[in-house]
Specification:
The structure holds 2 protein chains of 2 kinds. Helices cover about 75% and strands about 0% of the residues of chain A. By secondary structure, chain A is an all-alpha fold. Chain A has 2 domains: about 1-55; about 75-310, Orthogonal Bundle (MetI-like fold), CATH 1.10.3720.10. In chain A, strands 1-2 form a two-stranded antiparallel sheet. In chain A, helix 6 (about 140-150) crosses helix 8. Chain A starts with a helix and ends in a 5-residue tail after the last helix. By secondary structure, chain B is mainly α. In chain B, about 70% of the residues lie in helices and about 0% in strands. Classes of the chains: A mainly alpha, B mainly alpha. Chains A and B meet through helix 1, helix 4, helix 5, helix 6 and helix 7 of A and helix 1, helix 4, helix 5, helix 6 and helix 7 of B.
Chain lengths: ~325, ~300
């Protein structure tokens, strides 16, 4: 009995120490996350809250100086929803995104399939080129393309004229917004192809060779092998790449802004440009915020698809 | 799909030997032609993809009279460095390089330190709210900067941080930090927990196990993430463009816009400046491309 009694306090002390440690280790992850959460809350969470609040306020130069907006309820939204230019911009942004994403995905996948069939030397050459393009900063890329399509000394006009595509001497690509967006799409797709091509190529090397051979033995043609074997196996990759491309192309700003010398005409407004111009050129921060809120809401759909696929592929564990 | 496996090892049984041999020969001839065709196609794609980069570097080395000529000069011969000296001697080049470097260093050190701690929590602990935090991180990767810039401008104008590098450093955290957390936790998950647990069984403390086991193993991932954070911050345009008004406070990407004025663009010096801007990024990118490329798609591709 005496022994048992002397053991008792020992056990309870150990238990107390243990539970103390358990509490500490239960709190540890929260302590480790705290700085990141605090910074994200300050630089992302608060601005997002403010963005939504601004979209319900009149916030012009006067309010900017006063540091205080005036509540107007749904006024800003009513204004943009009744503005035909807004709907034009939304439509333009959606079409622009669709064209860019489609071109990026199709060309990127085609190049990935091509890389897989190349000899070793050509493969190395092409992947090196892709990595170089990938590494090129967007601002630099835009300036290169601006130079290539320069109306006077640009290499594009000379080449197209020489190849008898028509008379491109002194052709201004940005006179019409359609051909202007053509150039902008070229910059974006050119810059986005490497990521898609290299990722899909890496995915292709994961497809079991036996499956492809089996399909070929069954008499499947190349296109059918791709559609029936490769495509279903790579579906997760395609979904992730497509949703990322949508997210990136939907918020394109720099390419348009720099390409058009920081003064794009209304024909070139995408949602990001429109929100920016309303805010920083016309000083209607409330209206700009309302446009930006609509933009964020539309982006959220693509983001949900992306996150869902990441969960499905087991990346979020 | 599941019935495919047993078919694979079964050889094609030709009915007779001769047609098969003929077919094989024809196939081989077709095969060679096809291979040449495919490689030529590869060469064409290579040319189209690399040309803009080549054209930038070539233009940068050409003398002005060969740039301002209706007929393109395909090779930079004669070559000159005058565009580079012109670019480097323009107002604010060195100041803006310095600004970029200051901003980038602070952003990298700050975000990597904070991201390291967060990644540790996400990869080494199971706790309530963990999945929610990961969703938050992934979600923030998608918030458009063009939307965020409006409230950021209002906020910074209230605290008088417009036109200061401090404000820009804080704002760069909006996109660098979530990305660093996400990439780093991916690297850390690649290091088996059992290694640390073994060290702890051998009498090491949890902290000791982190320092001696996890840190060295995750070091390459830390380097890769830092470089990627560097690239993102170095390339950023819109925030620096809106928040830094003075030429002496701008970053290198905004400086590139100074080559265009109402009279037109100085293409030679601009291409030289663009080459200089891209150079550190390209060098770093080539170093880490293999490690980092699949951060956003990992799981779907195990490369």
């Amino acid at each position: 009995m005496a022994v048992a009694e002397s053991e008792f306090p020992l056990v309870s002390r150990r238990r107390r120490r243990l539970s103390g440690r358990r509490v500490a280790s239960a709190l540890a992850p929260y302590a480790l996350l705290a700085p990141a959460a605090a910074i994200i809350g300050a630089v992302l969470g608060y601005p997002l809250y403010l963005l939504v609040r601004l979209s319900f306020e009149k916030y012009g130069l006067f309010e900017l100086v006063r540091h205080h907006g005036t509540w107007v309820g749904l006024g800003n939204y009513r204004k943009i929803f009744h503005d035909s230019q807004f709907w034009h911009v939304v439509l333009r942004t959606v079409v622009f995104t669709a064209v860019n994403v489609t071109l990026t995905m199709v060309l990127g996948t085609a190049i990935a399939l091509l890389i897989a069939r190349l000899g070793r030397f050509m493969r190395l050459l092409l992947t090196t080129a892709l990595v170089l393009v990938w590494a090129t900063p967007v601002v630099v890329a835009v300036n290169i393309w601006r130079w290539m399509v320069d109306y006077e000394f640009g290499v594009a006009n000379w080449t197209l004229t020489k190849l008898h595509f028509g008379n491109f001497v002194h052709h201004d690509w940005f006179a019409s917004s359609l051909s202007g967006f053509g150039v902008i799409t070229a910059v974006i797709v050119w810059g986005a192809i490497p990521f898609v091509a290299i990722t899909v190529y890496a995915g292709l090397s994961q497809v079991p060779q036996e499956l492809i051979e089996a399909a070929q033995i069954d008499g499947a043609r190349a296109w059918n092998v791709f559609r029936e074997v490769t495509l279903p196996l790579l579906k997760p990759i395609f979904i992730i790449l497509a949703s990322l491309s949508i997210i990136w192309d939907f918020q394109v700003f720099n390419q348009v802004w720099i390409m058009l010398g920081e003064r794009p005409s209304p024909d070139y407004y995408l949602m990001s440009i429109y929100a920016f111009v309303e805010s920083f050129r016309i000083n209607e921060y409330g209206l700009g915020s309302a446009i930006a809120v609509v933009m964020v809401a539309m982006m959220m759909v693509a983001t949900l698809v992306y996150i869902r696929q990441m969960v499905k592929t087991g990346e979020v564990r | 799909m599941s019935s495919v496996a047993p078919i694979a090892p079964v050889p094609v049984a030709p009915t007779t030997a001769r047609p098969a041999a003929v077919a094989r020969r024809r196939l081989r001839r077709g095969h060679v032609a096809r291979r040449i065709g495919i490689n030529l196609l590869g060469l064409a794609v290579f040319t189209v993809m690399i040309f803009p980069v080549y054209w930038m570097v070539a233009t940068a080395f050409k003398p002005g009279r060969n740039i301002q000529d209706y007929k393109p000069h395909w090779f930079p011969a004669p070559a000159t460095l005058s565009n580079f000296t012109n670019a480097v001697h323009r107002p604010y080049f060195w100041t803006d390089v310095k600004n970029s470097l200051i901003i980038v260093s602070f952003v990298v050190v700050l975000s990597l330190t904070v991201a390291f701690l967060a990644a540790l929590a996400l990869s080494r602990f199971r706790f309530y709210g963990r999945t929610a935090f990961i969703f938050l991180i992934l979600g923030t990767l998608m918030v458009p900067l063009a939307a965020l810039i409006i409230p950021l401008y209002i906020t910074l104008s209230r605290v008088h941080l417009i036109n200061t590098l401090t404000g820009v450093i804080a704002m760069y955290m909006t996109f660098v930090l979530p990305f660093s957390v996400w990439t780093l936790q991916g690297f850390m998950r690649g290091v088996p927990r059992e290694l640390e647990e073994a060290a702890m069984v051998d009498g090491s403390t949890r902290f000791g196990a982190f320092v001696r086991i996890l840190l060295p193993l995750v070091a390459p991932g830390l380097v890769a993430t830092s470089i990627f954070a560097f690239i993102q911050a170095w390339n950023e345009f819109i925030i620096a463009y809106v928040f830094l008004h003075d030429g002496s406070k701008q970053t290198i990407t905004v400086w590139l816009a100074s080559f265009t004025n109402l009279h037109g663009t100085d293409w030679g010096p601009l291409m030289a400046g663009a080459t200089l801007t891209a150079l550190p990024v390209v060098v770093f990118f080539v170093l880490i491309q293999r490690r980092i490329a699949f951060g956003l798609t990992a799981g779907a591709v195990r490369g």
